[in-house]
Amino acid sequence: MRCLLIGDAHLHEGPNLDDVATCLAFAVQTARERDVDLAIFLGDQFDRKSTPEERLVLRDVLLAMPCPSILIRGNHDALGDLQVFAGYPNVQVFEQPAVVPGELVGSRCADIVVVPWAEKSWLAAAGWTGEAGDQAGARALAQLIQGLAATRPDPKRPFILVGHLSVGGAVSSSGQPLIGRGLEITLGDLVDAGAVFTGLGHIHLPQELAPSVHYIGSTSIVDFGEEGEEKRIGILDVGADGTYSIAWLPTPCRRWVTINAWVSAEYGPMEQMAGDDNPPVFTGPSAPIMAHWQAEGANVRYTVTCGEEQEHLFDQAALRRRFVDAHTFKVETRITRAERVRAADVAAARSTADKLAAWGAATGTEIAPSLIDKLRQLESEVVP
Fold it and tell me: What is the tens place of the pLDDT at every residue in 74-125?
């Protein structure tokens, strides 16, 4: 059995909907070229309750897919939102756990255990809440998976486990918000389930939790918190003897680029691309800052860190002209304000010399007595 594993797509109407569509079209092309038996969408097809435009993108993908497809509900998929696709040729939608015998997808090599997103609200409805409810939910989820595996038509046949799950110890992307409504399963329980391979959605950062347990990762970059992450799909081959192999294919997703800018006391305005090992470079209205290819077609974030009196050195209109080839461009300005000492002794001091002495005492700055004497002498000689 050869399966195509597709992680969180997060179809979201807006400036990056075309990017997700491009990555999903790449998945369809891969299924054709690799003679795939089954395409498995691992949850979060949508980012929230879907719009007609978002559903049209997924419709085109499912109709173009040259093999049967399985859609698994993720935590971002609204309940019932995927059912519109259940009547499509060769499409099965799963909002509840189930077993898919290999024969239904034309293979006798392995079965498929499907586990969609599990809500904590299910526990609350049963009277389980708090920490005890979480523990009970984790146990129930593990027992559910083991029970599904045991009720397959041929329990001796290998099976793969696919779903949208939260696994303890997984590392999320820095910008991925994780809503605490789901049940968390332990890695040990997943391994003990006995699947030949476990492919999961939910966490956007691709990672191997165990030799046969993987988060596939999101299909494309969702926000700047995922900048620089690998985005991929997987080709999983499973043999009748229980052996498997997995190949990862990077998706052609859009780049997200952060450029950090500041003012150097020695050189003036400077900037450097985030994650770039090359030294920072001088910036100015006529200076080429970054190579053209680094911004062309990318989502670019330009962060400026400077004092209030330096903000004029970074003209936003000029910046937008320079990065006109970017797909999207935004400027984030972080103003650093000088800290002022408001010690009572400084405010009470009458002369400048006394204020300097009080400021030194308040801030722990050593002020030479000779300097204070010279300042007092200067004040006495200056005629008001």
Answer: 999 999 999 999 989 899 999 999 999 988 777 778 999 999 998 776 656 6
User: Residue 373's domain spans which residues?
Assistant: 344-381
Whether residues 332 and 354 fall in one domain? no
Do both 60 and 160 map to the same domain?
Answer: yes
Instruction: Measure Cα distances from 40 to 98, 153, 163, 326 in Å.
Output: 14, 21, 9, 33
According to DSSP, the β-strands at 256-264 and 244-250 are unpaired
For the chain, report the end-to-end CA distance as a whole number of angstroms.
Answer: 94
pTM: 0.82
Instruction: Name beta bridge partners: 330.
Output: 301
- The string of DSSP codes covering 193-235 is TT-SEEEEES-SS-EEEETTEEE---SS--SGGGTT---EEEE
| Cα distance between residue 159 and residue 78, in whole Å | 28
Does residue 129 have a pLDDT over 70? Answer: no
| Residue 286: per-residue pLDDT | 46
Question: How many residues are present in the chain?
Answer: 384
Q: Are residues 303 and 324 in the same domain?
A: yes
For the chain, how many structural domains are there in total? 3
